[in-house]
Amino acid sequence: MFGRVLALVIKEFLALLRDKQGRFVLIGPPVIQLIVFGYAATFDLKDVPYVVYDEDRSLASRELLARFSGSKAFEKVADVLDEGSIGPMIDNEKALLAIHIERNFERDLIQGRHAAVQVIIDGRNSNTAMLSLNYVNEIVERFNEDLSRRYGIRGAPARLDIRAWFNPNLESRWFIVPGIVGLLTLVVTLIVTALSIAREREAGTFDQLLVTPLSPFEILLGKIIPGMIIGLLEASFIIIVTVYWFGIPLRGSILALYLGLALFILSAIGVGLMISSFAVTQQQGLLGAFLFLVPAVTLSGFATPIANMPVIVQRLTLINPFRYFLVVAREVFLEGAGAGLLVNQYWPMAVIGAVSLSTAAWMFRRRMY
After folding, report:
1. Do the Cβ atoms of 293 and 190 come closer than 8 Å?
2. I need a labelling partner for 263 at 20 to 30 A (CA). Which of 125, 130, 232, 253 fits?
3. C-beta of residue 345 within 8 angstroms of C-beta of residue 327
4. Which residues does 367 contact at the CB level (< 8 Å), separation at least 6?
5. 162-198 tens-digit pLDDT
6. CATH code for the structural domain at 48-165
7. What does the angle CA 326 – CA 327 – CA 330 come to, to the nearest 5 degrees?
8. 295 neighbors 302 (Cβ within 8 angstroms)
9. CA distance readout (Å), 10 to 13, 60, 282
10. CATH 3.40.1710.10 in the chain, residues?
11. Strand positions, DSSP E, the chain
């Protein structure tokens, strides 16, 4: 059995290497898209969830915080009672920033001393963080102007003390490029597998497979293994470029990253084989892959936060494997996460992979007979 499967795997690689279009799909789009997304992708600001830790609880602190609650750019999600409660809110992405007003804030303002307003911000989405900080600066500047007119204080009475977590310099590539690891891997893996069986039918070699000793399971296994190898090699190349070209630190466990990558590629292969089993021509396979890719990327959180989507759409994202791998990639790269912290992202991809591969096998057997 393994010898026959190995022969089929070698045949798949030779077919890909002899096909000019196949070679271009493997090399051209990943390099082009990696450079384009790495340098040009940007994000717009939407409602920014924030938490408040007000130790002073004075008239001045309430006046400053009222300016945030009255702004359409911000949405308060919680008041916390201690500094230790801020970390979990930002780690779990329930809040993008925290506003911490220390004791004696009002007293320092009245006495003409500089009063610090600490802003702790999630730097993983650096563009959103920088835009949010611009709004924060604007609010604090207006607050200072009102205080100066009211009390005749010179300079800026309230000063911002900014701390960016996970991305201290707020570089946009640190947020964008780790997501491209999943995006380009999905594109290549899905296209390769979506064209696999359709290419056999179009070339007339599918009937030859049917008269070989290979069983339907062995044929599918011979289609899965090349997709898995190509996906892992493609992702490894992108990870190397991400770390050594773009200088993005890989802080977490590389084993945790590759475990998530393997489950993600397996689920992408399942979807691709489902498309390929249904398609008669390569054109239909490409169309099916395109129809899956666009919603998968849109509903992954790559460009638009899932929390800002309608509830029905948020539920739809639960069947999207790209959603889960994005979390794995960004948490491993930027937060230093290990496999134990990513179990909730692993098992949905494993379920999606099992269901999609089972469905692809059923469709393949049905089309054969």
Report:
1. yes
2. 125
3. yes
4. 277, 278
5. 777 777 666 767 777 888 888 889 988 888 888 877 7
6. 3.40.1710.10
7. 80
8. no
9. 5, 73, 21
10. 48-165
11. 48-54, 74-79, 97-101, 115-122, 158-165
